[in-house]
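In response to the reviewer comment on reproducibility (Comment 2.3), we provide here a single inverse folding case reported in full, input and output, so that an independent group could reproduce the run without further information from us. The structure tokens appear first.
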């Protein structure tokens, strides 16, 4: 039997259950494993699992499912470790429905293993009644939850129109991230986002962050990737690996999209705009020994537990609200609107050019050096 496994997010990896489940499923056939999600990629690297879990492509989970469908495997497993049984089951429902929208025939069983090791853990046969479900349920001590139960308990009451989106499993005081942009903070355990003309305009159960909404711009609320709280919960020891960097000095530019940083792992250094982008990007790039220059304004919404930074990295903290303005001028002047440049030969030269740009727009700033 050919088995495809889609691993989603860092928590299933950090818990040790990703490897346990992969080894268990090897008893049933030939196993291939792919990742869904960027922070999960970092967890794979830290756990030295990249020879087992394919992290070569940035894929949303439904696309990873589709690849296994197109490869004509016999069964596909989606393994996840959500914040709660509710968030995990709703996540699976949305992934599965995005997946079936992308395929012509739905003849391959899809089984979700959710929160293994927890009392509220479950196994969900999304489109089949395979005997393997009951067998794994007993071996893993997981309840079998049917798709109809997920729909009735968590989805049915959510059908309040495409301009509203209920977000499950939230707690007060958590960041709200939409398509990798922080747009607010929760103040309740119930959260509803409301959009008009493809823009989020209101919120129930939280407070919106206008600056974040401006960064987000237009959004399809129905298909948007929405996360709350920390992207990665575990305290980890980061693993540093070597990369094939170019011989000449390459500078890259990243603006408010920290999860896209993996495309720059061949760079000599990366300029990051925004507090959270700097935090996420420096943490990821630490694994590849790539320094950063961060343009921040002190408006940090903590999205990872620890933010590691490579020695010789530099952080500019500018006046409140000026990080975007400085970033715009850096991209225009230093990169000619592009994201990569070979016009500089050292991080000190890049730093001096940024200082010149900031001084020309008459903005106060502080510089911190990572020793």
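Designed residues, in position order:
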């Amino acid at each position: 039997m050919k088995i495809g496994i889609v691993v989603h997010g860092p928590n299933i990896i950090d818990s040790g259950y990703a490897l346990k489940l992969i080894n268990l499923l090897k008893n049933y056939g030939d196993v291939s494993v792919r990742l869904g999600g960027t922070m999960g990629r970092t967890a794979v690297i830290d756990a030295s699992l990249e020879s087992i879990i394919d992290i070569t492509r940035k894929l949303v989970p439904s696309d990873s499912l589709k690849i296994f469908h197109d490869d004509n495997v016999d069964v596909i497993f989606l393994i996840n470790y959500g914040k709660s049984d509710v968030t995990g089951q709703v996540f699976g429902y949305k992934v599965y429905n995005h997946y079936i929208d992308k395929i012509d025939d739905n003849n391959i069983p899809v089984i979700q293993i959710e929160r293994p090791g927890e009392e509220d853990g479950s196994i969900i046969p999304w489109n089949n009644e395979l005997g393997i479900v009951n067998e794994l349920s007993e071996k893993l001590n997981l309840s079998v939850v049917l798709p109809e139960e997920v729909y009735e308990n968590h989805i049915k009451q959510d059908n309040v129109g495409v301009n509203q989106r209920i977000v499950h499993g939230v707690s007060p005081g958590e960041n709200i991230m939409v398509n990798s942009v922080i747009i607010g903070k929760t103040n309740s355990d119930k959260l509803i986002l409301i959009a008009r003309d493809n823009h989020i305009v209101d919120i129930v159960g939280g407070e919106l962050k206008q600056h974040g909404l401006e960064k987000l711009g237009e959004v399809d609320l129905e298909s948007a990737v929405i996360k709350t709280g920390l992207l990665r919960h575990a305290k980890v020891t980061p693993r540093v690996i070597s990369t094939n960097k170019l011989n000449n000095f390459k500078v890259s530019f990243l603006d408010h999209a920290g999860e896209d940083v993996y495309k720059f792992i061949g760079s000599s250094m990366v300029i990051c705009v925004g507090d959270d982008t700097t935090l996420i990007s420096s943490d990821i790039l630490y694994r590849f020994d790539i320094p950063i220059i961060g343009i921040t304004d002190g408006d940090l919404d903590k999205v990872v537990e620890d933010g590691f930074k490579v020695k010789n990295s530099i952080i500019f903290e500018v006046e409140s609200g000026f990080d975007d303005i400085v970033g715009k001028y850096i991209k225009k002047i230093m990169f000619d609107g592009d994201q990569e440049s070979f016009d500089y030969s050292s991080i000190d030269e890049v730093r001096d050019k940024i200082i010149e740009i900031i001084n020309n727009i008459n903005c106060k700033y502080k510089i911190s050096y990572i020793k």
